[in-house]
Amino acid sequence: MPRHAFTLEQANALLPHVRATFRRIRAGREAARRRADKIAVLHALWGDAAGEPDNPDYDELRAHERALARCGRAIDRLIGDRLIARGIRLPAGGLEHEMVDFPTTLEGRWVYLCWRAEEDRVAHYHEIEAGFAGRRPITTELGARFALVGDPALEDDSPLDF
Q: How far, in Å, CA of 45 to CA of 139, rounded?
């Protein structure tokens, strides 16, 4: 995927899409949790025999396992199709804490605009290596300097390597 440097306006415009994606991911995670709980009950009830084909609950167990796998694939597709494919980065802990990074440039270097679910808008950025702990507030003056046309970092269209 070629590099794309988001402007602050572009990142904020994508927030309704990101919020909707996280709602769908939460629903998928809850469905997966319910299936995992049912699998755990069957294993608690039957022990190792739960997975034996002659067990009376074998078909139910396998149905829950298949449904759990479908939930995982659906969540992976949501992340891939609705976030990653748009150039949005899901950092470590991003799924659990509903955080995303929007790659951008600032003064010739790549940085991330960062957002988490409880925030109304993208109001912070951080250096690539700094992570969430290194977040800095975006001032009005600074906000206009992200992803500037003619930024030397934008001339490199090689794949992201960070």
A: 58
